[in-house]
């Protein structure tokens, strides 16, 4: 007699339906080709932006970017030279100076906090963790004015430091939540074995937990990097003209030049290519990181 705890076995010799046989036949190369076509279609706007950024203003206003395949002589790097000469390079480095510390600090602080919430017993641990989770629902907009006043009192309003601190503060709740769930799934035996060998908590974190968390850390790094790199709202409020990132520089160019595509297109492509390279470099960890903590 079959019990509820036993899995139901397929009856030998039973023929599968037409839909099942179709899935079996198409489950190999055809599906892979279809997925490759979807990926190429997804990259098509990026290719179009690259071509537009390397065409002159007259060519962009008269014909579409796809005509470059019959007129390759229209390609030029003059747009990028003009863009960099206009001071856009300083905005690029401002973006780097904002994004890299914001990402590194969030990963470092969140990893240590997540380890404490997962494996260290201290009074009020669950209450503090619930407070951290509650901060996930706090919108950025309600904190802009109070923090702007605080930055004014501290003398860091308009500086890169103020922008970095804002991104770190609002990036930590999600980062702690993600990494804590991943750390909680690490077998307890590994940590107990390290404690029996006399390893302190900081050494267990650095040599056992942190290396095992590479998928979750890579996924968190991609999320945080993209959020900060593409941010415009925080930059508009807290960054002055001398410390503005690329998003604010492009927004000011659009207001100043209107439909000047030969200025906006190369700037937009420069702001796009770095996150795209980062994603493809760490995409093998991305799915693993998204599933972090989903199964314990």
Q: What is the structure about, briefly put?
A:
With 296 residues, this protein is an all-alpha fold.
Describe this structure in words.
By secondary structure, the protein is mostly helical. It has a single domain, classed as MetI-like fold. The protein contains 13 helices and no strands. It has helices at 18-26, 29-53, 57-62, 78-119, 125-134, 144-154, 160-184, 188-196, 201-212, 214-229, 233-238, 246-257, 261-290. α4 runs parallel beside α13, α5 (125-134) packs across α7 (160-184) and α7 runs antiparallel to α10. The protein is globular, with a radius of gyration of 25 Å. The model is unreliable at 1-11 (pLDDT under 50).
Element layout with pairings:
Blueprint (H helix, E strand, L loop, with lengths): L17 H9 L2 H25 L3 H6 L15 H42 L5 H10 L9 H11 L5 H25 L3 H9 L4 H12 L1 H16 L3 H6 L7 H12 L3 H30 L6
Helix pairs in contact: 2-13, 4-7, 4-10, 4-12, 4-13, 5-7, 7-10, 8-9, 10-13, 12-13
Characteristic key phrases:
296 residues, mainly alpha, 0% strand, MetI-like fold, disordered N terminus
State the name of the first-level CATH class: Mainly Alpha
Q: What summary fits the major beta sheet? A: none
Euclidean distance between termini CA atoms: 32 Å
Structural class: mainly alpha
């Amino acid at each position: 007699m079959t019990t509820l705890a036993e899995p139901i076995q397929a009856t030998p010799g039973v023929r599968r339906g037409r839909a099942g046989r179709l899935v079996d036949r198409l489950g190999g190369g055809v599906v892979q080709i279809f997925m490759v076509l979807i990926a190429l279609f997804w990259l098509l706007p990026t290719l179009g932006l690259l071509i537009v950024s390397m065409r002159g203003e007259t060519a962009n206003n008269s014909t579409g970017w796809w005509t470059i395949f019959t007129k390759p002589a229209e390609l030029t790097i003059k747009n990028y030279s003009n863009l960099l000469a206009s001071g856009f390079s300083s905005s690029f480095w401002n973006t780097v100076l904002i994004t890299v510390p914001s990402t590194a600090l969030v990963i470092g602080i969140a990893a240590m906090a997540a380890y404490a919430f997962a494996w260290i017993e201290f009074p009020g641990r669950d209450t503090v963790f619930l407070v951290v989770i509650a901060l996930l629902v706090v919108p950025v907009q309600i904190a802009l004015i109070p923090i702007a006043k605080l930055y004014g009192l501290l003398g860091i309003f308009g500086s890169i430091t103020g922008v970095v601190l804002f991104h770190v503060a609002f990036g930590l709740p999600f980062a702690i939540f993600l990494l804590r769930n991943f750390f909680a799934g690490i077998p307890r035996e590994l940590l107990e074995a390290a404690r029996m060998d006399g390893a302190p908590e900081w050494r267990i974190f650095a040599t056992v937990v942190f290396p095992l968390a590479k998928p979750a850390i890579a996924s968190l790094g991609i999320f945080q990097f993209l959020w900060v790199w593409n941010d415009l709202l925080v930059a508009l409020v807290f960054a002055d003209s001398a410390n503005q990132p690329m998003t604010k520089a492009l927004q000011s160019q659009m207001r100043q030049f209107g439909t000047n595509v030969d200025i906006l297109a190369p700037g937009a492509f420069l702001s796009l290519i770095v996150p795209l390279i980062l994603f493809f470099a760490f995409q093998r960890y991305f799915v693993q990181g998204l599933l972090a903590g989903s199964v314990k």
